[in-house]
C-alpha cells in the first residue's frame, strides 16, 4: 500500500528547513507523496496574525515547484473551522481511500499529543512520522500509558538541522537583510515581488 505524508503548517513563509524535513520524511519512509497542508487557523496558534492564506499557498507552491513527490493540499483551507488534525485526516482518508496516511510531526508535538483534540481517534486514522530532534525528550512509556497502541503507530525520522524559523525570516525581511540560503529562490522572489513582511508605514 502506498504511503501519503501529511506535512501541515502555517508556512509563513516556507523555508529551506521545511523542505529538508519534507525530503527526509519522503525518503526515510518511502512516501509516494508529501502533501503540504497549509493551515487555515491552527487551534494552538489562535490570536496570532498570519499572512493571508492565499498568499501562503502561493509561497508553498513556489517552494515545492521543483520538488519530486510533493504537492499542495487545501484540505485545511477549504473547510470551516475549528481546524483540528483529526478532522483533516478524516477528510483525507475519504479522498485517498487506498493509501496509508502518515502525519508528519515534531518530537515536541508527539510529547504533547495527549492534549490534542481526540488523540485516540487521530492515531487510529494515521501513522505518525516523528521528526526527531536531539533537544526534545519524549517519554514513550508515559505516552503509551495514556494512548494505548501509540508506540506501534510511530515511525521515527532523523531530522536534519533547520537553519532558521519562519519568524526569523520575517524579521530579516523587515530589517532589509538578505535571505540567501534560507528560503528557496522562488519564495525569495515572491516575497520581494509582493512586498511581504515589510514594516507598515
Can you describe this structure?
The structure is a single chain. The protein has one domain (3-194): HUPs (Rossmann fold, 3-Layer(aba) Sandwich), CATH 3.40.50. The chain is 37% helix and 17% strand. The protein has helices spanning 16-28, 53-64, 85-95, 107-111, 119-125, 140-146, 166-174, 185-194, and strands at residues 3-9, 33-38, 70-73, 100-106, 127-132, 154-158. A 6-stranded parallel sheet has the order 3-2-1-4-5-6, sandwiched between helices.
The amount of beta strand, in percent, is 15-25%
Please count the beta strands (DSSP E, at least 2 residues each).
6
Specify the helix fraction band: 25-40%
The name CATH uses for the topology is Rossmann fold
Determine the mean pLDDT.
Answer: 92
Major sheet description: 6 strands, parallel
Assembly type: single chain
Low-confidence stretches: none
Distance between the termini: 53 Å
Secondary-structure element string? EHEHEHEHHEHEHH
Strand arrangement, major sheet: 3-2-1-4-5-6
- Total count of helical runs of at least 4 residues: 8
CATH class: Alpha Beta
Task: Based on the coordinates given, report the CATH architecture.
Answer: 3-Layer(aba) Sandwich
Based on CA atoms alone, the radius of gyration comes out at: 17 Å
- Going by helix content, strand content and strand pairing, the class is alpha/beta
The CATH fourth-level homologous superfamily: HUPs
| Structural domain count | 1
Shape designation: globular
